[in-house]
Amino acid sequence: MSTVSSLLEQEKQTFMERTTGSLAQLRRMAVTLPLGVASAYQAQPPYPLVYDRAAAQFAWDIDGNKYLDLHAGFGANVFGHGHPVIVAALNEQAQRGSHYAHPTKALGDYSAIVCDRFGLQQMRMSNSGSEATMEALRLARVFTGRSKIVRMEGAYHGHHDLVLMSMKPDPAQVGDLPRPGVQPATEGLSESLMQEVVPLAFNDSETLWKVLQEEQIAAVIIEPVMCNLGMIEPQQGYLEEVRAACTATGTVLIWDQVKTGATLSWNGANTLYPDALPDLHCLGKTVGGGLPVGVYGGRRDIMSLISQGRADGYGTFNGNALTVAAGTAALQILDQASYQQLEDWNQQLQTALSAIVEEYDLPAYVAGCGAKLGIFWAKQMPINYREYLSGVNEPLAQLSWLWLANRGVLGAPGSDEQWTLCTVLDYEQDSQQLLSALTSLAAALRA
Length: 447
Ligand code: PMP
Prior knowledge:
Layout: H1 4-18, H2 20-29, E1 51-55, E2 58-61, E3 66-69, H3 72-75, H4 84-95, H5 105-118, E4 122-126, H6 129-144, E5 148-152, H7 171-174, H8 191-194, E6 197-200, H9 205-214, E7 217-222, H10 238-249, E8 252-256, E9 280-284, E10 294-298, H11 300-307, H12 321-333, H13 336-359, E11 365-369, E12 372-376, H14 385-391, H15 394-406, E13 409-410, E14 419-420, H16 427-446
Parallel strand pairs: 3-13, 5-6, 5-7, 7-8, 8-9
Antiparallel strand pairs: 1-2, 2-3, 4-10, 9-10, 11-12, 12-14
Helix pairs in contact: 1-15, 4-12, 5-12, 6-11, 9-10, 13-16
The structure holds 4'-deoxy-4'-aminopyridoxal-5'-phosphate (PMP).
C-alpha cells in the first residue's frame, strides 16, 4: 500500500486539471463566503466542485464534467434530480404562492402521510434536521423535567449548541471509554452546556443502563444506524436494550432519522428494528423532496406539550408550501416498490464490491441497506467512534473519493459518508461505471 501517497498525488493533479473552473469560482466566492461555500461540510479537500446543474442520477460541474451523483445532496435525493413529479408539484405550487405562514390542506395531507409512514401520533415540520433535533431534545426536557442528555460519541445531530458536543472529540483530550469527557466541536459554546451532555459509546448498553439509572437524564438521542462514521450497525439486541433502559427510567428516546429515514427502507429504521422504536423521531433530508426540511414527532403526550403552551414549536417557514409540495411528491414516488428495487440493487452492488475487496485483498468493508451503501476503508465495521478512529485509513478514503470523481462517479467526501442510490438509476450502466472505476483503483493499489 506504499503506493497510496503517490496515487493520491497523481489523482489530485488530475482532479485539479479537470476542475480549473471550480477552483477559480471558489476563489472568487471565498471573498464573500467563508471557505467559498454555504456549509463548512461542503469544503472538503482538495476543494469542492462547483455545480452547474443536475438531472436524474447525474450532475455537472461548471467545467462541464459529468458525474454519476452518489453524493445525492448529502443523501437527500433518493428520487434523483429534477424528478418530473416533483417538478410538476413545485411548478403548480409556485404559481399559487411559495410561502404563506398559514396552514394549508396540503400540510395536513403531508403530515398524515408522514405520521402514517413513520408511526408518529403527531408531528411538526421545521426547516432542517438540526431544528428537528433541537426541538425534540427540548420537548424531552420539558416532558421529563430533567435537563441532561445522552448522546453517542462521534455522532452528528446537527449544528445547534447542545449537539455540537463530542461530535468528533479527540480521545487524548476526553479520556477513555466507557465514560469519556465532553468536548465542544466549536468555539462559542457556553461552558455550562458541557454539563448537560453525557457522551457514551454506541453499542455499549451496559454503561447506558448504569447512567440512566444513576443520573437524571431527559433524553437519549441516537441514530439507529450510525451514518456519519461510515456505516455502523447496532449489534444484535443493542437498540432493544436502549429502548428498555429508557422505558425503565422514564427517559425519552429520540431516534435521529434525518439520514436513515426514507433511505434504509420505506420507513427508515422502523422496519429494521420494530422492537426498539423510540418516543420521538427526527426526520429531514429525503422527506423534503429536495427542499429544506425537518420533521419531529412521535408520542402524542410529548408532542401535546406544544398545544399546552409548555414547549415552543415556532418557525416562519415551518410547513412552507413548496417544501410540502415537494415532500408530498417525493413520498409518493418513494413507494414500497421503490425500496424493493433499491434493496435489490444494493444487494447486487454489495456482492460485487465485496468480490473486489476479496480479490484484491483490500483493507475495506462493504455495508449498506436500502438506498445507502459504501465501501469503507477500514478492515471491519467498527462498533463505535473509537474503533472507527483507529480503524479508518483516511488517505485511502480520500484516494478512493478522488479516484472515483476523476472517473465520473461522485460520492460524498470523507471517510464518514456513504453513497446514496436513487430510484432513477440505469442500473446496468451506472453500476458498471462504479464497479469498473473501483476495480481499476484496486488494481492500481496492488500494482
Ligand atoms: N442528524 C443527522 C443524523 C444528520 O446526518 C444531519 C445532517 N447531515 C442532521 C441531523 C442535521 O440536518 P441538517 O443539515 O438538515 O440541519
